[in-house]
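Continuing the series of single-chain predictions for the mutant panel. This is the parent chain; the variants come on the following pages.
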Amino acid sequence: MSTGSIQPRPSRNERREAAREKARLLREEQRRKDRRKKFLIQGGVIVVVLAIAALIGTMIFNSVRPEGPGPQNMASDGILLVGGESGIEPVSTRAIPANGEPTPSEPDDSGTVANIVVYVDYLCPYCGQFEQTNSESMRTMVEQGAATLEVHPIAILTNKSAGTQYSLRAANAAACVADRSPEAFFDFNALMFENQPEELSAGLSNDEIKALAAEAGASSSVDECIDETRFKSWVEDATNRALTQPIPNSELESVKGTPTVLVNGKQYVGSLEDPAEFRAFVLQAAGQSYSESNGTPTPTPTPTPAG
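Parent structure:
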């Protein structure tokens, strides 16, 4: 009866070689696994690095993105408001081109109009005092054609709002209103000071600023402009110009603080909380301009003796 072939038992050397071969194969398999693992790890690191690089690149681009044009109707770095048939109307101007320079407004030199120019920071408490004290007087004077008003929003307190850059955002919002809904600017400016946050606070949110713009009558087209801080570069440039360059139509070498208020080129340095004192200054400045335009000397007020 056949029992089949009987395989000889491997010798010790053969068993040793077989074990070595098996170990070699296991090492090769482990090396392949290690290479795959290393490749996957390297690939993952590369993906993460690329993602971080893209994020950093985006942040850098947003911080140093090419400057765009400034807002329309602010060719002088401010918006000029005059009296018209429908009340206060903006003077339309083209936007300052990217990397361009402003064009100073031409003051009314008839001698019968007060040319009021104000430089304001929407976080500045002294600006708030001046605006809330004199806003309605200026509205009346402009509506009646007795004055023009040029508002220059600047941002010198950007680092005074708990990291939210409120001054810059607020000035940008004013630029957005001037650009898209200039007829609403006077009311928007007044509302921003009526609702002025305290210095060192976080300030108003973009949504709160947009709500004030809507209350002033601005169109919803300003919302996107406010959210993306479209005129950030212009605000920074306009602020720098105000702080370092001579103020047009005046003898001031630069803005030293806010509010800076000029009437026919003369700086108002009186009370920020006395509307009668500011009205008197406006009348005196306008009267002096009228006298100068007619070639007659301006009478010097006689001082009142102390009682």
